[in-house]
Amino acid sequence: MKLWSFALLFLANAALAQDSVKLSGKILNPVSDSIIVSYNDNAIAYYPKDFIATVGRGGYFSLAFPIPHGVYTQATIRHRDKAAELILNPGDSIFVSVDAAHFDSTLHFLGRGGAIQNFIAKHTITAGRINQYVLKVKTHINKEPDEFLKNLDNERKIENEFLDKNKTGLPGSFINYWTALFQYYNYFFLEQYPQMHAMIKARKYTDSIPEANYSVVSHLPYAFNDSLLQLSPYLLYLTGVFEIKLKAAGYTFYGHDTATYRKFQDSVMKLVYQHLPPKSTEYYMAQNLYGRARNQPIARTEFMYTDFKKRWPKSGYLPTLDKQMAIAERLAPGQPAPDFDITTPDGRQMKLSDLRGKVVYVNFWASWCKQCVGEIIKEGKMKELIKNKPLEFVYISIDNDTAADNKLIAKYKMEGLFTHAIGEWSAPEVQLYGVQSLPAYFLIDDEGKFAMQNPPPSPLQSTELILALEKLFK
User: Fold this and answer.
1) How far, in Å, CA of 281 to CA of 220, rounded?
2) Cα distance between residue 385 and residue 392, in whole Å
3) Is residue 178 a contact partner of residue 163, using CB atoms and an 8 Å limit?
């Protein structure tokens, strides 16, 4: 899923002190000559920002870097394969000491902001990293509604108890931030439960959701607050709250490019303008446009884009939306698919353009993407239904470990043209096709042009995909 834009310039020492963080420290038994601090600097897309410091003699390092103004920022500090979470505030000046041989258990922070980092380090040891909370809640989605709600409340209760026992010395603003973090994660999972529970029961993708699954949605409040826009689970909550409320009320539609679906989206928009405060409304509309720009008819995308610019002509989200619009227009049906080199695991070399005359289904994947691997494995049965057709499946891995790819290909006897994009997310193919999450699919006709705005994922929607392919075979 798969969710931040700040561009800051610092022109004076006062501004530097206000909107930057200083991080220095000493590493015992270093395993690398560098320390990297990363955070996502874009609210509607994933654009990580990295800041690198050299680990010098004695294991000392020092780093100063900008962070967003006036909000807490979740970040990660990495030392080769070691990593720790940070939650930073403008003006923090932190000294960290750590033994790389026992990374998590030896982290200790001093200075302004140090109390928060020590709290997080203790949380990692006793309760796990923040994303562990998400994994814990996911294990409860297979439960029936009443038990799911009980377990959800219990997980949050555990977090609140940890906070109560360890909040000495923490700023009140951080306590509020931490409390809201798990509160909105719970709201987000209330939104996700109806369909995810149905899929677990069916053991496959399904839009058929029993009415009983929606009973949990009555526990989902309207709890909007512009001051929480720096909080990632609040953003996740915003993106789905109105849709799930309408579905729980009985609003149904079939397909994502139909008159009923567009009417459904119009109803969502009305609720957005009625209930969201100003900044949350701007965020919602930016995120909605960004997320749908490439998954709906280009004419509708262009209309939404023009409307957004009229309402928020100076929006900070516009640079990101401009880029997304350019990608959507470049990948629209009828546009030529960018050519790229294909080098198969056995060393055979060719280009995508060499496949002209065939329909091509392109799938971007990676060995670490479990969904990607699972779908490729399951494609065999679907391929049997369309064998002997002028069709080619091309798989482009963005993994940095080609050996891992090749091992999986051989183990599961995967069929198709497999190639590797050198450079991971920065690879030319990834950039040309605007890949922003995995797996990513593209359907190209026999003339080398994009055939669909949003091809059905294989094999999750195999029937829809087969019908789409049949229309392209000549």
Assistant:
1) 19
2) 14
3) yes
For residue 8, being part of any structural domain is answered with no
Q: Answer yes or no: is 336 within a domain.
A: no
* Whether residue 352 sits in one domain with residue 320: no
- Say whether both 107 and 147 belong to one domain: no
Q: Is 18 a residue whose pLDDT tops 50?
A: no
**363 and 439 Cβ atoms separated by less than 8 Å:** yes
Cite the beta strand spans of 369-469 per DSSP E.
Answer: 391-397, 417-420, 440-444
Cα 140 to Cα 134: distance, rounded to the nearest angstrom: 10
CA-based R_g, the chain, Å: 24
Residue 474 has pLDDT above 60, yes or no: yes
Which helix (H) or strand (E) element contains residue 434? Answer: none
Instruction: Return the closest-CA partner of residue 257 out of 297, 198, 298, 315.
Output: 297
**77 shares its domain with 116:** yes
Phi-psi region of 39 (alpha: psi -120 to 50; beta: other; left: phi over 0): beta
78: tokens are 């990495």
pLDDT given for residue 248 in this prediction: 95
- The predicted pLDDT at position 116 comes to 98
460 lies in a domain?
yes
Q: What is the pLDDT of residues 174-219, one digit of tens each?
A: 999 999 999 999 999 999 999 999 989 888 777 788 999 999 999 9
Do the beta carbons of residue 124 and residue 166 sit within 8 Å?
A: no
Whether 448 and 352 map to the same domain: the answer is yes
0.90 exceeded by the pTM? Answer: no
Residue 260 is assigned to a structural domain of this protein? no
Q: What is the number of other CB atoms lying within 10 angstroms of the CB of residue 329?
A: 14
Give the start-end residues of each E strand in 281-428: 341-343, 349-351, 359-365, 391-397, 417-420
Helix 172-202 / helix 130-138 crossing angle, nearest 10 deg: 30
- Structural domain including 18 reads 13-126
267 within 8 A of 243, measured Cβ to Cβ? no
d(CA 463, CA 441): 16
pLDDT digits (tens, 9 = 90+) for 330-370: 999 999 999 999 998 888 999 999 999 999 999 999 998 98
**pLDDT for residue 12:** 29
* β-pair partners for 66: 20
Burial class (CB in 10 A: 0-12, 13-18, 19+), 461: middle
pLDDT band of residue 146 (cuts 50, 70, 90) is very high
d(CA 234, CA 74): 14
Q: Which of 51, 185, 25 is nearest to 113 (CA)?
A: 25
